[in-house]
Amino acid sequence: MLTVEAHGLSKWYREGANDIVAVRHASLSAKAGEIVAVMGPSGSGKTTLLSMLGCILRPTGGEISICGERVDGLTEQQLPPVRRSRIGFIFQSYNLFGALTALENVLVALKLKGVARDVARQEGHRLLDAVGLGDRANSLPRDLSGGQKQRVSIARALAGEPPLILADEPTANLDWKNGSQVIELLRDAAKSRECTVILVTHDHRVDPYLDRTMTIEDGVLY
What we know:
Layout: E1 2-15, E2 18-31, E3 35-39, H1 46-53, E4 61-66, E5 69-70, H2 79-86, E6 87-90, H3 102-112, H4 117-130, H5 146-158, E7 164-168, H6 176-193, E8 196-201, E9 212-217, E10 220-221
Parallel strand pairs: 3-8, 3-9, 6-7, 7-8
Antiparallel strand pairs: 1-2, 1-4, 4-5, 9-10
Helix pairs in contact: 3-4, 3-5, 4-5, 5-6
């Protein structure tokens, strides 16, 4: 079964008398264990597409299925459980809580997924160990490098073992030493956990780590 499948996805906005098209009739699919990149320049529609796949942004048209269930027609009340149980997000700006330690940032995700406190702490430590940050569990984000903060965000995204991981420019703010570690972690997650990883990027240095690449330009995916 495909983890994610989208047909004819479109998103446009009304600006004055004009319709601004961000994504135009995009279709894609990905299965468990795949790491797929959507590449394109800034402003090409990459983040809009990822936000629709992640049930953050509602498409203007088209269909999205995650783990075999149509989600494009769900109500705002029905979408949060889908995001919590099936999707892990990795953001370019990390989106960590500044007042929480690395471990506590991961525990927030586990708590939202309903994991019991004692089990969550064990799992949180295991996830940080898996991304090479077991010794920084009690560090605040301000005391971590960019690469370390991105690895915390990966640990958080993997919490609860969601079948779909979505990453928005995960190497953009990193030098290649840290960027390569991040993309290796994502590839390892796809292969060892049998989850699907879709990332948007304009960084062609990630090419050797990918199973497939798609390109988006001016909102058109091909």
